Amino acid sequence: MSTADEILAAASDALVHWDIDAPTIAVLSHTENIVCRVDYGPGPRRVLRLHRPGYNSLGELRSEIAWAESLASFGLTVATPVPLPNGGHHVEVTVDGQPSFASVIEWIEGHPLTDALTSEPSTTTDWYHRLGVIAATIRAHGQTWTPPAWFQRRSWDADGLLGENPLWGRFWESPALDTDQQHLFDHVRSLLRQDLDQITTDPSTYGLIHADLHSDNLMVHDGNLTVIDFDDAGFGYYSHELAVGLRSLLDTEWLEPATESLAEGYASIASDADRVIAEVDTFLTIRCLMLVGWLDQRPTIALYQYRDQLALQAEAAANRYLDRRQR
Q: Phi-psi category of 49—alpha, beta or left, where left has phi over 0 and alpha has psi -120 to 50?
C-alpha cells in the first residue's frame, strides 16, 4: 500500500508537468484512484488523479477524456480536464514502485450527492428524477456521437459482467464467502448469464455508459449536479447504468419511490424507459455480485472493511433473484 509520503512525492512530480510549483496537496480519497486536492499560490484549485496502475491504458484514458469532452459539448455538466501546456492530459509517474498515469481536472465546488441524500432524505426522489435525466442524456449522446477511430473502452457485456474472467474478478470464488455462498453465487451467475443472452446488444439496449453513476460520483453545488469519475465508462447495457445508481438504496424505504422517480426522469428523454427499467432488478443483482469481486481486488482501501457486509447484501440479492425467477 502506498504511504502518504509516496503519494505526495508522486503527486508533486506529476504537477511539475502542469507548471504547478510548490503546491499544497491533500489526499481526498483512495479507492479506484488516488484523488488529491491541489492548492498553489494565486492559481485556481485543482484536482490531481493518480490512476490505479494497470486498470486503464493510456489509450483508454485518452478515450475517457474525448468522451467526457464530447458529453460537455452535448450539454452535460462534467468534470473538466486540464490539458498539459504542450498538449495531452496524462503523464507517467511511479507510485509505490508501480508505473501509473496522472491527470488533472478543474476543482468542482460542492459535495457528493451522497451527503445530500443523507442529510435530507426527503429529497431523494427529486434527485433520482434528475439522475434519470442524466442517464438518458448520456445514452442520447452516445447514439449520436461517432467516437474517433482510436477510441478504446472496456465492454460491460455478458462476458465483462459474468464471464469466466469478468472485469471485476471471479466474485463467486471470493475468500469473503463461505462454501454455501460460493455455490449460490456461481449458480446465480449461470442463470443471470442466461438472462443476459436474451437481451440484445443493439443500440436500443446497449451503448456507451458511465457505468459507475452512483451518488458519490455526482457533485452538488447550488442545486446543480456535475458528473465525475469516468474511470469505468465503456460500452454496456442501459439498464446496468440505472441499477448502479439504485444499488445504494437497497434495503431502504427509498428504493421503490426512487426507482419510480428515476424512471420518470429517464422517460422525459428516452421513449422506451419502461423496457429499460424492466431489466433493472436483474442488473441490481449483478451489481451486488460484482462488488464482491471488486473489493477482493482492493484489499488496501478503506472500504475493504465492509467486504463481509457486501457479501451478505449480495447473498440477499441473489436469493431475491431466485425467488423472482421461480414465480
A: beta
pLDDT digits (tens, 9 = 90+) for 182-203: 999 999 999 999 999 999 899 9
Pairwise CA distance, residues 45 & 47, whole Å: 7
Compute the residue count for the chain: 327
Q: Determine contact, residues 208/68, Cβ cutoff 8 Å.
A: no
The closest of 13, 71, 79 to 46, measured between CA atoms, is: 79
Rounded to the nearest 5°, which phi and psi values hold at 306?
-100, 15
Domains present along the chain, CATH in parentheses = 4-106 (3.30.200.20), 111-326 (3.90.1200.10)
**Contacts for 36 with CB less than 8 Å, ≥ 6 apart:** 7, 11, 25, 26, 27, 28, 47, 48, 49, 50
CA distances from 310 to 298, 317, 318 (A): 14, 10, 12
Q: pLDDT averaged over the chain?
A: 95
Answer for the pair 133, 268: CB distance below 8 angstroms, yes or no. yes
Beta strands in 194-313 (DSSP E): 206-209, 218-221, 224-227, 234-237
Measured CA distances, 321 to 178, 244, 274, 302, 315 (Å): 19, 16, 20, 29, 10
How does residue 214 score in pLDDT terms, banded at 50, 70 and 90? very high
pLDDT for 1 beyond 60: no
pTM above 0.90, yes or no: yes
Q: With contact defined as beta carbons under 8 Å apart, do 172 and 192 qualify? A: no
Are residues 289 and 314 in contact, defined by beta-carbon separation less than 8 angstroms? Answer: yes
Spell out where 40-120 has E strands: 46-50, 91-95, 98-106, 111-112
Measure the N-to-C terminal CA separation of the chain; round to a whole number of Å: 47
